[in-house]
Every structure is written in C-alpha cells, then in structure tokens.
Design a protein that fits this description.
Layout (H helix, E strand, L loop, with lengths): L31 H14 L15 H12 L10 H4 L5 H11 L9 E10 L2 E10 L6 E7 L13 H11 L2 E6 L10 H16 L5 E11 L1 H15 L8 E4 L10 H5 L8 H11 L24 E8 L3 H13 L4 E10 L10 H17 L3
Parallel strand pairs: 3-4, 3-5, 5-6, 6-7, 7-8
Antiparallel strand pairs: 1-2, 2-4
Helix pairs in contact: 2-4, 6-7
C-alpha cells in the first residue's frame, strides 16, 4: 500500500483515510502559514465536476470531489479482488493527495519523531511505530492507535498521517499497531494482537517517555472496533483500563439491514458488498458474526472509560456507531459523540479539503486532551 499522508489546517487536522505514495518528512518548523492556505484553498477551489450522485444527494461538494477522483483511477471493486490485490488499490487518500497537488495545497509538517519496535505476541510478533512530540517533556500521555481496513487491508504507512496528527496536536505519544491481517490471520488474531500491544505499552511506557497511568486507545473503522475490544479485555483481565476511547465510525454490529446499510448500500468508498467481503475474509464462519467482539452492540459495555464516537451520514456503519453510543450510555459509560452530515466513511482525515473533516479532527484531539487532563 502507499503511504498515507494528509494535511492539517490551523483550525483543524487531517487524520485518517487510506494510502498515498510518499512518506511525511518530520520537521520542527511551524506550519501555520501553510495551514492557512489549506483552509482558504479548500473552500474556494475543490469542487466536483458532476451533479451529486443518486446514492448521496446530500453529499458535500468537497467530499464529492474526492469520490470523483477516486473513481477516476478505474480500479476494480474490492469485492472482486483477492486480499493481496485489494491492498494495491487506490484509496481516498490517493484522491486527496492528487487534489491537493492539482490545487497547490501544501503538505503538512509534523513536530514529531518516530521509531519502530517489534512486540512479541502469541504466535509471532507485531511491529509498532512510536510517534513522539519534539517538545522535550520528561513524560507524555500515550495513545495506542489501530488503523482501519476491515481487518484485511492497510498498514502503518497507510495511516501514518493519523498517528502524526494525533501526536503533534494532542502532544501525546502515539503507538500505532501493525496487527496481523486476514485472511492470512483469521479472527480473533487481530483482536488478540491489539490487546497484546496495549499490555506491552502499559509495561514498557517508561522506556519511551510514556506515562503508563495515562494511556488511551483509538482507532477508525476496524481499528475502532479493536480499540473498544481492547478496553473490554483490559476490564475483564483486571488490567488498567484505558484513560479514554476514541472510535471513529467503528465496526460495531453484525446486522447489515440497519437503516444506514439500507440507505448507503452502494455508497462510496465503503458499501455493503465491501463490508460483506471484509467479514468473509476475517471470520472463519458466518456464525462468528454474532460474537460480541464483532457485534459490539451486544457486548457487556459496563465499566468502560469515557468514549468518543464519530460517525458519518453517508456510511453503512452510521447506524451501528450511533447504536453503540446508546448502548454505552445505557451501561453507564460517559459518551460524547458527533455525526457529520454530507460526508462518507473515511472522511476523517481529509481536513485539507473537507471542512467537516477539519472539525472532526479537532474534536477528536480536544476530546483526548480533555481525557488526559491537558
């Protein structure tokens, strides 16, 4: 996959979509001027070339421009591909980066250093990438981050910008986890890897200037599912639960007949056939779809930490994300949530172009900072 690189604006951030072709260079220089250009340029010049599609009459123009650019690559639909070939497809971030280049929108700079570690897990090891702000503090809160991709596609490079932005703007260390992917590693291996990485952070935080008493979990889509499951398993194992959870349009249910699945069955970049393909690849049998680790809305959610949930209107996963918020509240969990109209799955991370993404990214940062007492 190509490396994910996104842009940030002074009023917001560019986090998570998918992959791009180049790696972001670390720099300590201020990006305020470039961010201001990003904000002004995106609002004035990024426009779609066609009328709104039938599947999304309410789509915002900037969001539509990204979807149009994505379609222009002519890739085969993911459900028609093997996992290996699907990992080579263009992604929404490719579209964002191409649009940025076409409109002379500068790339971001992040005041962050990175290093890699291999973490032993049952049956093998996973790689983690540690992002540390260049602010010379003696200890930092930690965010354990899980990327998206339906448990099948994507990697640390694909979501590199997400980790960079969270580390830079939250001023916390981010540990991004390369959990093993399916179909090479079936359910529940990704879930076990996610939890093992969290335990490793608790035990080793001091070795990379992390504060083991302030550790949050965060993720998007499949990664949002892993973040919540990690908190549940920590509770059940009587290990320190995370300080907070950030779940961006998480995979949270097994019902593919919800209102948002019906409304957004053919939405882009995520549609119902793609979700069916992800499930088929990850699970050993259809019966596992009711497992509470997949069907989180039926899980025991009591005793979890404060949770932030972000959903998108044009997304098959919208209904289950909202239902998860309701279930968490019913279980006595403090929940803060926002739904964003006119945008699709993967919008979170497109702040250089999509105004709603800027708002969502800043919202996520502020929620994490609040949880850390910053």
């Amino acid at each position: 996959m190509k490396t994910k690189i996104l842009s940030i604006a002074a009023a917001g951030l560019l986090l998570l979509a998918a992959c791009t072709g180049k790696t972001m260079e670390d720099t300590a220089d201020s990006s305020a001027a470039a961010d201001s250009v990003n904000k002004d340029t995106s609002a004035k010049t990024i426009k779609p070339s066609e009328p709104a599609p039938a599947w999304a009459p309410s789509i915002k123009p900037e969001m539509q421009a990204v979807i149009e650019k994505l379609a222009s690559y002519g890739d085969k639909p993911i459900p028609e591909l093997s996992a290996k070939d699907a990992r080579k497809n263009h992604t929404p971030t490719d579209a964002v980066m191409d649009l940025m280049a076409e409109h002379n929108i500068p790339k971001p700079v992040f005041n962050v250093d990175t290093m890699g570690k291999d973490v032993l897990v049952e049956g093998g090891s996973v790689h983690v990438r540690i992002y540390t702000p260049k602010t010379d503090k003696t200890a930092y809160p930690v965010i354990v981050y899980y990327h998206g991709g339906g448990f099948v596609i994507a990697n640390l490079d694909v979501y590199d910008a997400s980790a960079n932005v969270l580390a830079d703007k939250t001023e916390a260390i981010v540990v991004s986890v390369a959990y093993r992917l399916t179909p090479e590693h079936k359910f529940p291996i990704a879930h076990n890897d996610a939890y093992a990485a969290y335990e490793w952070v608790l035990k080793n935080a001091a070795s990379f200037k992390g504060d083991a008493k302030k550790v949050a979990v965060a993720g998007e889509s499949a990664g949002g599912n892993l973040a919540i499951n990690t908190a549940i398993k920590a509770r059940d194992n009587k290990v320190m639960i995370p300080t907070a959870i950030l779940a961006v349009y998480p995979v949270a249910g097994s019902d593919m007949n919800t209102p948002s699945y019906k409304k957004n069955e053919m939405a882009k970049p995520l549609d119902k056939p793609m979700m069916m393909w992800f499930v088929k690849n990850y699970l050993k049998s259809t019966d596992q779809a009711t497992d509470p680790r997949i069907n989180l809305v039926a899980a025991n959610l009591k005793g979890l930490p404060p949770t932030t949930i972000i959903t998108a209107e044009i997304d098959p996963l919208q209904s289950e994300g909202m239902l998860l918020g309701d279930k968490l509240k019913a279980a006595g969990v403090a929940v803060d949530s926002k739904n964003y109209d006119g945008v699709t799955h993967e919008f979170f991370g497109m702040g250089a172009i999509v105004p709603q993404a800027m708002d969502a990214e800043m919202y996520a940062v502020e929620q994490l900072k609040k949880a850390f007492g910053m």
